[in-house]
Design a protein that fits this description.
This protein is an alpha/beta fold. It has 3 domains: 127 residues, Rossmann fold (3-Layer(aba) Sandwich), CATH 3.40.50; 248 residues, TIM Barrel (Alpha-Beta Barrel), CATH 3.20.20; 33 residues, no CATH class. 44% of the residues lie in helices and 17% in strands. It contains 18 helices and 17 strands. Helix 8 packs across helix 10 and helix 12 runs parallel beside helix 13. Bound molecules: sulfopyruvate and magnesium ion.
Amino acid sequence: MSIVYTCFTTDVIHEGHLNIINKAAKYGEVIVGVMSNEALVKFDRFPTISFEEKVKMIEKLEGVSKVIRQDTIMYEDIIPTLRPDYVIHGDNWLSGPLKAIRNNVEKLLQKYGGEIIDIPYTYNESVQLTDTKMKEKLAMPEFRRKRLRQALKLRPIIKALEVHSGLTGLIAEKTVVEHNGNLDQFDAMWISSLCDSTAKGKPDIELVDMTSRFRTIDDVTEVTTKPIIFDGDTGGLTEHFVYTVRTLEKMGVSAIIIEDKTGLKKNSLFGTEVAQTQDTIENFSAKIKAGKIAQLTDDFMIIARIESLILEAGMDDALNRAFAFVKAGADGIMIHSRKKEPDEILEFCDRFRAQDSDTPIVVVPSSFNTITEEELAQHGVNIVIYANQLTRSAFPAMEETAKDILRYHRAKEVDDRLMPIKDIISLIDTL
Ligand code: SPV
Ligand code: MG
């Protein structure tokens, strides 16, 4: 009897999946692969149930003879060993980033004469409703909040992209790229104080107040599902910080990063060009402790950001602070640098990891931007934040467009480099 293989990534079975199984059964024995959560988070919706629960759910379906685990997006671990006669999939993989998967499956099958069966992708009203419900479930605060901790377990390194509006949130949410036969997407969003302030035309000096920063979070959470890391600047007065923690938790934010500075905060990328005061270890530890006592869930993370390298206070100072802040209850350490070379960051990570193998390390490679995520992960980094690149790419493009309209007294000359209205509209979801 022929073997027909299909791979599911889903958390809920709907008509579309049943249709695949029914069609597959006409060709032979149906074996369903369940993609591991570690693999699917690279390109698909975040799982809401465990791998084992998915297996149980699919084993119960009529027409399924066996359920197996698939560990790779590109089917390399399955096809050469299982040697299915057919691989069946919805025809949604004929275009977009999923096409890379189809191409690879085709190549693997060709080696021994296996075939692909593309069947029309089911997207009727009931499937659409299930899809929308899943998205909404993931966007609920209780799901979103714990997702950073969950993602830390699934991903070798978390990639967070700066967002400051619903639109930039959608870019972080939806962008999936195929490169060298691999798919990838962002895991989290960073609400940067610099870019949130810049979007409002204000300096990054804790001038944009918390209520306004929460409004930005609202704009983002309304249209996305990915976890949020919030740039909390200095955290403000401890008496205020505890309220901020509670509010962020309620909103479904996963983490706040606060920096060990006091007084008028200016952006770290100024380095020592501006006067900045680092907080004492005692005061800052007390702030962390108060925040940890205030939080109500185990999901929320308070991450301590150390400014010693930025303020040229030395590596030993940075490390002393890191260990003290972890002792005070910090759930992670962010180490910052504005050097072009990553050396001091790597030295910090290596020395920190020699004594602490667990506490997540966060870095923001805006200046030391030649280092790759893989190299950072090798030095024990868990979260990499692309803190300002969306703002810095959009601003010059908008400025140039404004200048050209003034130059030519019309918009024709700029039109070629603009996104078609239809494309921008299709970014936005309709219910
Ligand atoms: C931000 O994005 O606001 C940050 C990171 O705090 S940095 O600008 O590099 O200080
Ligand atoms: Mg900031």
